[in-house]
Design goal:
The chain is of the alpha/beta class. It contains 12 helices and 16 strands. Helix content is about 40%, strand content about 15%. The strands form 4 sheets. Strands 6-5-4-7-10-15-16 form a 7-stranded mixed β-sheet, sandwiched between helices. Strands 11-8-9-14 form a 4-stranded mixed β-sheet, with helices on one face. Helix 2 runs antiparallel to helix 3, helix 2 packs antiparallel against helix 5 and helix 3 runs antiparallel to helix 4.
Length: about 350
């Protein structure tokens, strides 16, 4: 299994995704600021992986603090958490993980050293849970895939976007492991080419048949009848089922609807943000112009041209066939079904009332 990010010898170790597929190299971070830099520059990316990175980075920051008093320690930790909160605004898992680490910090009753140990343990637990959750997502979603299916995916929602295994690619892995013969069409995913560089690399590692296409070929493939379903990940899902995911996802969802193709989203419960009523409330990160103007420092556009570079778009829930979570496959009406999933009703209590 691909291990994307993990804790080892009081350091945070991660695959440097900027170098893939040409070079496979592990980056070891011994200062929490290095983890922040890795999140910002896409060394580590993908909502679940960003959440894991934040948890591990906060634990790393805690170990480095030279504070004897709990009050001083708590104040310093609040600043570290705030620094992680300022990295990637769209990814819900980032804030979910920070909230868990803050709760662990608040619950600490022992010495500073004991609280530090508890924070490291919590961050490692988040890492382990992420992999287990992804495997459950795979098991829940594999029944949506059938023998011979031709699947289109966008960006990278595989092991590299998580601590390991993956969400959308996790569903594909689980179906393949069940013995189903599948073929994956991989959108290159402009402007940073996460599909071409990362998803294609993962699928080759897994010996899953795949074909790389440019983003603007997807509609023609659907029209030709060469795509049976689309499955993608998510960076945040609003209470009504609207989905924030890598820029270009909305276009695929509209094309899938036009061509009568199921459009599935695979994501853990930690990606669902019940506090936001609809997609337009999700903050959309805008990234550096250079991602569009050039690739790996090779300029591809004329100097002085204006650039608009949103990293994500919003897919309205009406285009989403189902959302695959670790607790099951959720279908419309999302407003009711997601709420019930996050805050399940005790039916015995309701019936006795």
């Amino acid at each position: 299994m691909i291990r994307t990010i993990f804790w080892e010898n009081d350091a945070v170790v991660m695959i440097d995704q900027k170098l893939l597929p040409q070079e496979e190299r592990l980056l070891t971070c011994r200062d929490y600021r290095e983890v922040i830099a890795a999140i910002n520059d896409l060394t580590v990316r993908g909502a679940p992986a960003i959440g894991v990175a934040a948890a591990l980075g906060i634990a790393l920051g805690a170990l480095a603090l030279d504070c004897s008093g709990r009050e001083e320690f708590q104040e310093s930790m609040a600043k570290i958490c705030a620094e992680f909160s300022a990295t990637r605004p769209t990814a819900r898992n980032l804030f979910w993980a920070i909230e868990r680490m803050k709760n662990c910090l608040a619950a600490g009753t022992g010495s500073v050293a004991e609280i530090k140990a508890a924070l490291v343990a919590e961050a490692c637990l988040i890492t382990q849970e992420d992999i287990a959750i992804n495997r459950r997502i795979g098991r829940q979603g594999r029944e949506l895939l059938h023998e011979g299916d031709r699947i289109l995916t966008h960006c990278n929602a595989g092991a590299l976007a998580t601590a390991g295994y993956g969400t959308a690619l996790g569903v594909i892995r689980a179906a393949r492991d069940e013995g189903k013969a599948l073929h994956v069409f991989v959108d290159e995913t402009r402007p940073v080419l996460q599909g071409a560089r990362l998803t294609a690399w993962e699928l080759q590692k897994e010996h899953i048949p795949a074909t790389l296409i440019t983003d603007n070929m997807a509609g023609f493939l659907m029209h030709q009848g060469k795509v049976d379903l689309v499955i993608v990940g998510a960076d945040r899902i609003a209470a009504n089922g609207d989905v924030a995911n890598k820029i270009g996802t909305y276009s695929l969802a509209v094309l899938a609807k036009e061509n009568g193709i199921p459009f599935y989203v695979a994501a853990p419960l930690s990606t669902i943000d019940i506090s936001l009523p609809q997609g337009q409330d999700i903050p959309i990160e805008e990234r550096n112009d250079e991602e569009v103007l050039s690739f790996r420092k090779e300029r591809s556009a004329p100097a002085g041209i204006g650039v608009y570079n949103p990293a994500f778009d919003i897919t309205p829930h009406r285009y989403v066939t189902a959302i695959v979570t670790e607790e099951g496959v959720i279908r419309p009406p999302y407003g009711h079904n997601l709420q019930e999933l996050i805050y399940p009703v005790d039916r015995d209590v309701v019936e006795n009332d």
